[in-house]
Amino acid sequence: MRDVFFSAAIILAALVESPLALSLAKNYPGSPGYPSVAEWDALNKTLSDRLYQCPSQGNLTNACLQNQQPAYAVAARHARDISAALQFANAKNLRVSVLNTGHDFLARNAGVGSLAIWTHEIRGVELTDDWTPSNSPRPRRRRAADEKQAAVSIGAGELWETVQETVRAEGRAAASGADVTVGASGGWQQGGGHGPLSNQYGMGCDQALEFEVVSPKGDILIANEHSNPDLFWALRGGGGGTFGVVTRSTIKTYPKPTMNGVVISIVSKEIDNSKYLDAMSYFWAVMPNISDFGISGYPAMTSNAYSGDLRAPNKSLKEITEFFEPIAERMRQLGAFVSATPLSDTARSLLEIKDPMKDILALRYPADLAQHLPQSTIQLHPTAKPRRQLSGFLGSPLSPFLNPSPNPHNSHTSFAATMGMSSRLLARSALSESNIPAIRAMFESLFADGKTYIMLPYPNGGGQVARNRDLDVALNPAWRDAIIHQIVMVVGNREEEVIEAMRPLSVDDAAYLNEAWPFEKDFKRTFFGGEERYQRLLGVKRKFDPGNVMWCHVCVGAEAFVEREGKLWKEDGA
Fold first, then answer.
1. For residue 345, what is the DSSP state?
2. CB hemisphere CA count around 45 (13 angstroms)
3. So which residues are the signal peptide here (predicted)?
4. Which domains does the chain have, with CATH numbers?
């Protein structure tokens, strides 16, 4: 979600007033040091005609992010393409932006005048039942079956849909994202990564065994426990778009679980939603018990209705029904209508367990989404012979809603422009029957005066997420104590109000850095776990990117520059 919450560049710039004189930190079109046409031509030749030029302002489309479009884009197919692009960016002092599918709610993949690196064409899914790390100091030996690590190696451009189909065909599963159109090796994993199997196997970053990554200086590196272990640590939860460009990740796989569950609907029986909120407050209070049983899911909630599939990997329908029915009955006693229908493993596949946001928007706008998808007009650099398009470049299936077009005839503009996202990780310790008054107070505040359009309260903490607390990864440690990742979609500029409502139940005021308000006042604490952890991440950033070639707002290293009107500036003398 980019322009729905902001033009990140423009709004962030407006918030920053520096008392010191500023100078441009990067070269932009028109700058004295900006590459000549001949130099771009040379790069295009090096990249085998994989360099694209974004349209001018006069031919602007959503595909180029309106006022945040890159100047050029590299449609990389190999790590060496990215290496060449980053070496060129270093030499010419260019801003770099990185993206695959464009699923970035905080617009960290945007950058005015940048050289964009598009990883979507870096493909390949390879399975092994006996993975060995690259550059391991230990000699390879024959291992017993219980010592072997099953794994899958995934190219940066692959989507979870392809990965899951591949591993399922071999009787395996991977801890994937909830939306199968998300890339498997990019910002989802590097930012932490939650999904339908998180409760069973842990966060996405917990699954990583190894990365192939191109450093901001253009070096092609291996990052694992033996090679560049500090970079390996940072890439597991420290956020994408700043430490390097991952071109391949290797993650754990598991025997394919059953995915039985329950389809639950909770509705207010009366116009007054008081009894409904009583029932929902109780439901939140027993969420730790639900998590401990092994249930998680992707429901949606409004001021008078809650609905979604809740799944319990490797549990039988009998076990699920016997566990859940007393909870449903208690909510009925509190005055809500509750339907809890058993959902068998064969009813829907894991690939159909998705983030409900698209369905919610489709209900608001029932027209076929496909006809509204932006069409890229990014063209090959003029020196290349054929003219092609990058289908879906810089866009996602939600782009027409979340990137409102400047076209006054776009029916989505007025609605989308007023939507915003806030989130918090709700603590196990705050969700208990003794704390129901505080839970109820949160609901009353969130749903007062229509400020909340929709809430997405994902119960995907606990379980193995919590049990992995001793893993040395860069993930915000608040995840290990959280039960619900609660997203609130608001109408108008009310993000701070809903954050304040959720704060008392949160884990140390923490939020998931991939799905949050992009203007958090203390992003180091909220996204990364505090100053001490942030400084460790910053040390890795400075080691592998001393020139701040890769920069994104609210990312590690964001303090290096100020962003105004989409361009990066630095304090004179810095």
1. T
2. 7
3. 1-21
4. 8-121+376-384+529-571 (3.30.43.10), 125-255 (3.30.465.10), 261-348+418-516 (3.40.462.20)
Give the number of residues written for the chain: 574
Task: Give every CB contact of residue 470 below 8 A, 6+ residues apart in sequence.
Answer: none
Dig out the tokens for 381 from the structure: 């650099």
pTM beyond 0.90: the answer is: no
| DSSP three-state, residue 276 | helix
DSSP 462-484: STHHHHTTTS---S-GGGGGEEE
Burial class (CB in 10 A: 0-12, 13-18, 19+), 227: middle
Query: What pLDDT shows up at residue 142?
Result: 61
The pair phi, psi for residue 274, each rounded to 5°, is -60, -45
Which residue's entry shows tokens 């398009």? 389
The DSSP bridge pattern shows strands 115-118 and 96-99 to be parallel
Q: Which amino acid is at 58?
A: G
User: Are the beta carbons of 135 and 93 closer than 8 angstroms?
Assistant: no
Q: Where does the pLDDT of residue 58 fall: very low under 50, low under 70, confident under 90, or very high at 90 and above? A: very low
Q: Where would I find the beta strands (DSSP E) of 15-168?
A: 22-24, 51-53, 72-75, 96-99, 115-118, 125-128, 151-155
- Distance CA(497)–CA(545), nearest Å, equals 37
Residue range 193-213, pLDDT digits in tens:
999 999 999 999 999 999 999
What are the DSSP calls for 239-274, one per residue? Answer: -SSSS-EEEEEEEE-EEPPP--EEEEEEEESSSS-H
How confident is the model over 487-530, as pLDDT tens digits? Answer: 999 887 889 999 999 999 999 999 999 999 999 999 999 999 99
Model confidence pLDDT, tens digit, residues 20-53: 689 999 999 999 999 999 999 999 999 999 998 8
Q: Mean of the pLDDT values across residues 104-131?
A: 89
